[in-house]
Amino acid sequence: MVDSQYYLPNDIGISALDCRVAFRLLSPKEQMYAHYLSRASWYGGLIVLIQTSPESANIYVLLQKIFRLQAPQQLEAAATAAGLSAEEYQAFLVYAAGLYANMGNYKSFGDTKFIPNLPKVKYPTYYVPCVALGTWRHCGAAISYNLTLGLGISAYFSGNCCLEDAEFAQKFLDSKNLSAYNTRLFKTEIDGKRCYEVRLASGKSEVCCGKHEFEDSVFSVKRGDYAFLMEKVCQNLEKAKDYAANENQKRMLEEYIRSFTCGSVEAHKEGSRYWIKDKGPIVESYIGFIESYRDPFGSRGEFEGFVAVVNKAMSARFAQLVSSAEVLLPELPWPPAFEKDIFLKPDFTSLDVLTFAGSGIPAGINIPNYDDIRQTEGFKNVSLGNVLAVAYATQKDKLTFLEENDKDLYIKWKGPSFEVQVGLHELLGHGSGKLFVQDDKGKYNFDQTAVRNPETGELISSWYKGSETWDSKFSTIASSYEECRAECVGLYLCLNKQVLSIFGHEGEDAEEVVYVNWLNMVRAGLLGLEFYTPESKSWRQAHMQARFVILRVLLEAGEGLVGLRECTGADGRPDAVITLDRSKIYTVGKSAIQRFLCKLQVHKSTADVEGGRALYEGYSAVTTDGTHNFLRLRETVLLRKEARKMFVQANTYIKGDAVELVEYEGSAAGLIQSFVERFPDDAEEVEAQLLEMTSMDSSCWC
């Protein structure tokens, strides 16, 4: 087998998310509520196939047809007869599992394509059931080209759109007070005039909301993108309403239904307001077009829906952190004027995931992402406990780039330290900091005659105006910049003994947590080089770019705080070792993060795109000069990289008056089977609609 960043290895980690105990503790009514929310999420999750790439939905349908007719174990005999070895057949199963786990044929974490680790002559053509061959002809050729997502490939835009089109469309959307979150953009040219179609995701189909002349171009705004799937989402949310625990949940679902029916982001924002008010639910959920990481321009949201059950013991710790927030926020290294006027105490719960539909599962979430709501009405934080329990387990023999005497310590304390980092990152990272705004009526949310830039001492001279948002202003760097700011908050505040005590860490143990948290961050910065593309000088993953930036900041701090050296490994191949001087974390390290974090916040608060971009892109540069040859180190990282784990999730079914939970083994075959059984009543209709939606636009990427 060929070792490549474009293959998923046969030994990739695949773990089942255990939610059995949490689900069984729910009342029958709560189980019904969770079931219908899960159904809505799974139908909506299929939208990601269409958002990701033109061929993703076709490949998904092909795999569904194959495995619905023959389970993985049965298909193995046909594959063996066709000449595949056991290793090659496992490679095919891993590819299929990867397609399901990422909801597309690009890695959700890194945006590189993965292709079957098979010779082309052994692709499925020779052993799939005849009924699937027609689908194969539509997607087979696309499986192994266009290896990195971006404009021209990502299906958020037609293939003829470039960065200039994305920027121009954003100007139009801003002029109409329209959010890009639930849109896609398609460009044509008629009689020499640029014509753009802005499609809104909605159950109402083929409805034109208006045609607008804008700077010598024409924009048409139409409803009906993903109409079949959006309607399925709404049908299940309607059923979930019957089992809602309170009025806030009912109103929340009503607004989501209105949003997904009509394509209204404002209705989704209203639903999010009710969601924030729904404090401490037993069954927690959120659904919609949420994260903008994968939009090449950084403004459009990928569909996501999750359903989870509260872990009361761990949630108690997070509640204590929330109670301490007003004491901890003044510790952050920016002036009081740059912090929110009032800290709106959010829910912060630890959840066991029942369903997470989308392209991947994070460790924690801070939502909603709407700046106007977050700034003045609040937000919620969640930590996904059963994900943390399996996602970050590390085997010593696979642990790279650390000294031997750090490895045992790292394995022992990585879980507890990451729990602290996630808590601080989500609550006080994403939950902190003020945006200075002048609204449409000219009203300021700050005193423009008094607020000064702490870096220059001068009155601030820039701010957000009208409908401008963080995402629309900082666009391509917004996601990574914000993740970097939140990571820095976590590093900075984990030095606080009160924080460590909240999580149950005192004395020497607390110091080990701090050390491993910082060590994990600088190691992650090195690992982040996997997600840099030298040819385009671009980063493919927001979090890993953020961690590389932090590594650069801490290396720049000097005084021996962080060491990074290249060497030859025991196997004779290039290797590297990263070290951290724990005696300098509270001095050199804290001071470096303090200065950098203040700069990040000032640029963000004041909408200083030029200054923020210069700062962030400067530290993001992967250079060959200076003390470290980062391009050469990237080759070493690729040589020794470990594939990101995949998760197998349960299904729920109505049996009489009860809900049945069906779990699957943590393997490629188990992950495949979970998807084969995910749509028991209408699988063929769903697949036909997916094919129709993709074929309708197939010419847009030719």
TrEMBL record:
Zn(2+) binds at residues 425, 430, 483. It is found in: Cytoplasm. The active site is at residue 426. GO terms for cellular component: cytoplasm. Its cofactor is Zn(2+). GO terms for molecular function: aminopeptidase activity; dipeptidyl-peptidase activity; metalloexopeptidase activity; zinc ion binding. One of its GO terms (biological process) is proteolysis. Keywords: Acetylation, Aminopeptidase, Cytoplasm, Hydrolase, Metal-binding, Metalloprotease, Protease, Zinc. It comes from the Eukaryota. It catalyses: Release of an N-terminal dipeptide from a peptide comprising four or more residues, with broad specificity. Also acts on dipeptidyl 2-naphthylamides. This is Dipeptidyl peptidase 3. It comes from Cyprinus carpio.
